[in-house]
Amino acid sequence: MLVILPQDSTSLAKSGVHTVPEVGAPTRSRAGVWLGAAGLLVLVLLVGNINLLLGKRALQWDSADFFAPAYSLVADHLKAHRLLLWNPWISGGSPDFAEPELGTTSPIMLLTAAICPGPESGYIAYWMLTWIGAGLGMLLFAKHLGAPPWGAAISALGFIASGFFVGHAQHMSSLFSIAFLPWICWRLDDALVTRRYWSAVEAGVLYGLSGLGGYPQFTILTPGFLGLWTIGRLLFRDKGDAVEAVQVTQNRAHRVPRAVAYLALIGAVGILIFSPPYLGFATETHGYSDRIGPRARAESIGSGILPAEAISTLSSPYLFLLSYPGPGRIWPGSDVSMSDIYSGSAVVVLALFALLIRSRWRYWLAAVALFFLAASLGNQLPLRGWIYDWIPLTRFFRNASMFSIYTIFVLCTLCSLAARDIEKPEGCQGPARKKLFVLTFVIVVAAAISFGIVLHKARALPFQFDLAMVHFAIAWFGILAAALMVARNLASTRRFAHLLVAVAVCDALIAIVISAPAMYSDTAMHSSWRNIVNRDHVSNLDMTAGGLNRQLHPPEQLTEGTYANNRNVPLKTLVLHSYNPLYNRFESSVEQDPLLREFALGKDRIWFSERPLFADVTNDSYSRFAAKTHELGQPIMVLHNPAQMRALVPRTAAPTVGQSVNGNVASEFAHAEPASAAAVDLLGYRPNSVQFRYDAPKPGWLMITDRWAPGWQAEVNGRPEAVYGADFLFRGIRVEAGMNTITFRYRPRTWLVSIIISWGTLLLLAALEAWRLCFSRNKRVEHIGS
User: Fold this and answer.
1) Strand partners, 289
2) In this predicted model, what pLDDT tens digit does every residue of 550-569 receive, in sequence order?
């Protein structure tokens, strides 16, 4: 009889390793069941977000103010057959390609933007596709672990409806990073099981893609999680798992080098792929932003923490809404998006049930989950501080609560293993049924107590409290009833599985609906700015006709108040005060100073000086500059060579403006002369270039109040000229007496090379993958024919 082994098993058979059959492994006859599970995930997400998809709700917070405008700008550049490099519409100009969160070189972002370019509708499509991708990845990962379709569906539903996905719905980059996590782990674990280097390469590709458009914190943390996963796989084994056979037949001396090689491959391939924004950040932000170098220890461990009481959100997704912005919030020390770790009642019960089996591998996973949960508490425990001290890369981010997503992921993984156990003939029989009921009863009681305690502390019960009570009853008492039926032999294992899926579907669906206030709002739906942005969206990138005119804030009709946002970007309105993660302390000071900002606003914001000053970029120099400007009531020009600009140190203390009326100004500023407005003839103004003519009365310097960055180059009358920093933020250039034609072009030196490396790596590996699949198929056909 001819036996055709699956590809992974074939690889192991060739190496002389006999695998333990994968429990619950799908056959062709079960393909429809897996497709049904995938369809169920998609349906839950679509129905749960139906009000947004039908236009009855609208984006809010960071989605509306930062990520959606950036998405529309990427799409506008694609229409012009360009990639986004420099964004002149925010903060006086910003090197957006160097901000990893924006995904300006992500093939996934670019493909979505090409198909769905609308400022709001396109972004929503991108968001939903990312969310769906996360669920499908978890489904495949659970399938790889041997979970049956129903168990994989429960794990995936818990993952996509978890507190992380609903809480961080406004943070597209965070969702994008974590959507890849189950895919990456799937391919890494496959490499560990089958000893195939190619699986590690695939994991590296996925890791690299997650870095193109993902939040840098996860680009740093995910390798750490993969390392802990690999250590557990090397040290421990789980009964019934295919990796057990590999560990039995291989000694540790052979396994460790292979595992290190897998991780190195993932890191190397990933770095090559996500190199464009990170190389850009390393080269283009020095001198532009003071958000460089590690963060202060207190900031890293004390901001964006998961409140210890928020662990109670495991009982209900409603609880984190009690920390919604407002005077009555119960955890005012943390953002509402950082205060939810709900994972689904079935996931929690099955994850803990998985630990009833004696397995050092599962205990290791539980320890990893507790480790990341403890780290997410930030300064409430010493662990995050130790991580900051011992692992230098973790000094570059804050938001400790984001560690918790790895806890949620481990819970979903353990849930998959429990489902695999239950599917076995002996998995949920006799004593196991009683243990399951007792465990479920204890968990439900604990959930009810924690739910009640937090509700008792709340000053008010906002939003859909009645629905929250219905959800609690369905999620927890529903699973308790199912466990009771199994314990009393009133339901078969198959019927129990069906009941769990039904509970998980209702749980996930209602959890998403309950959490809607943290994702989108009815208020934003009826805001006039939203209609203006969609109606008056300008895709044209040429600003020449509009001239140099710049406002301090987005147009009044686009915003409520003066808080920073980027809603002006779809309308292509130049703004100084914006929402820009690449902040600069001098920019903030200029924006807050009515006199200093006046010279960077309006239509006439190019200045000439015959004898400018030269100074280092320091707080002290800035204070003297500001004091002298206030003394004169007119702008002065202070220049800094490129080396001085790049020497800008990380933010320590904000600069202060001294008392200028008493004449207490340093000697080098005492005789500073005011600059004069330069009447120029604007020839062209586009995102990556500006060209104008100026008839200079004498040899001197021009300052254009567009931001300086290392990638800016210039020509004066066809001859290259160095681009100096001016007034700590802007661009200055030397001109001759008489008519000058000045051209600025933004050409960052790493951009083109890094794009070639990144996309070239993707294309090469995609071609190799296609060849491998074709070769494998042909070989399988030949094997069958023989």
Assistant:
1) 286
2) 999 998 888 766 678 999 99
Strand partners, 742: 692, 716
**What tokens does 3 get?**
């036996």
Beta-bridge mates of residue 720: 715
* For the chain, domain boundaries: 7-522, 584-746
Tell me the C-alpha distance between 539 and 756, whole Å. 27
3-state DSSP call for residue 2? coil
CA-closest candidate to residue 580, choices 319, 306, 290, 341: 290
In whole angstroms, what is the distance from residue 98 CA to residue 41 CA? 34
Measured CA to CA, the distance from residue 214 to residue 234 in angstroms comes to 29
Tokens of 712: 């800016």
Cα–Cα distance list, 299 to 217, 218, 379 (Å): 14, 18, 10
Q: In what order do the strands lie in the sheet with 638-640?
A: 613-614, 638-640, 724-726, 730-735, 700-707, 606-609, 676-677
Tokens standing for residue 224: 């750490």
Q: Identify the CA nearest to 34 among candidates 110, 129, 118, 138.
A: 138
Tokens of 361: 């591998």
Alpha helices for 146-251 (secondary structure H): 149-160, 163-167, 172-179, 181-194, 197-211, 216-235, 243-249
Cα dihedral 572→574→577→580 (10° resolution): 50
Instruction: List, for residues 500-543, the tens digit of each pLDDT value.
Output: 999 999 999 999 999 999 999 877 676 778 888 888 999 999 99
Q: What whole-number distance in Å separates Cα of residue 295 and Cα of residue 292?
A: 8
- CB of 97 within 8 A of CB of 105? yes
Q: For 750-762, write each residue's pLDDT tens digit.
A: 999 999 999 999 9
Q: What is the DSSP string of 638-691?
A: EEE-HHHHHTPPPP-S------TTTT---HHHHTPPBPEE---EEEEEETTEEE
Structure tokens at 392: 């230098």
Q: What gap in Å lies between CA 240 and CA 243, rounded to an integer?
A: 9
Distance CA 284, CA 292 (A): 11
Tokens of 296: 């202060």
C-beta of residue 472 within 8 angstroms of C-beta of residue 316: yes
The pLDDT tens digits for 10-61 are 343 333 333 333 433 444 457 899 999 999 999 999 999 999 999 889 999 9
Task: Collect all residues with Cβ–Cβ distance below 8 Å to 213 and sequence separation of at least 6.
Answer: 100, 101, 102, 103, 106, 108, 109, 173, 176
Supply 405's token pair. Answer: 């997503």
Beta strands in 504-581 (DSSP E): 520-521
CA distance 127 to 121: 10
Q: Which residues contact 784 (CB under 8 A, 6 or more apart)?
A: 2, 4
